[in-house]
Structure prediction request, 251 residues.
Amino acid sequence: MNDDQLLRYSRHILLDEIGIEGQQRLLDAHALVIGAGGLGSPVALYLGTAGVGRITVVDHDTVDVTNLQRQIAHNLSRVGLPKAQSVRHTVAAINPDAQVQALVQRADPALLDRLVPAADVVIDCCDNFGTRHAVNAACVRHGKPLVSGAAIRFDGQISVYDTREAKAPCYACVFPAEATFQEEACATMGVFAPLVGIVGSVQAAEALKLLSGAGTSLAGQLLMLDARTMGWDRIAVPRDPRCRVCAEHRH
Prediction:
């Protein structure tokens, strides 16, 4: 770490739980962010400002004026620009040390199998179950921790799925692919603007804890927020020993 970095990250270095060693781990880390919208915006910004050395952002969509109500990485001048590229520009304006790779494509299984092995943590900020399950399956296959978040209307949820821990579930243990869930979209259901910032910030915090070695992750727990009352609930989510996704990858 050079003198400029010691100054920039001094407020992290002052924390006993992070210190110089933890900050160096962040600088050496590679985070994979799936989605550059409402959740991906605060996630990428906080990872970049905190000094994560390499950040890969995957999103196939472009910035639309309706995104600007909540997707804080974008602005009016970027309407029509790919969201992943917009995020890269925003992070670079805050911390040019962070190397952000912007991939303008869908996070399909083939791409995930190429990207996930090179990442130290994967943060799922997408908005559909199909992609969430594809991301989870790739993380299970390659033994990488997954920080997952979701937000719709006034309701949010966050958890960490880390199958490196014997008792921790994967995403499919909690939300099986064969189960019937009603797919809800912001375009039809709406979303409270600060909600995605709250959920995304918690996701960023969990990712930074995993990378730096600080604190204890949310693995095995589901954190849920009702922003109408700002009430938080935390429930234990067990591993399913018969899970079709992670059972065969357990050691």
Notes: The chain has a mean pLDDT of 94. The domain at 3-249 is CATH 3.40.50.720 (Rossmann fold). Strands lie at 30-34, 54-58, 99-103, 121-124, 146-152, 155-161, 221-226, 231-236. Residues 9 and 50 are 7 Å apart (CA to CA).
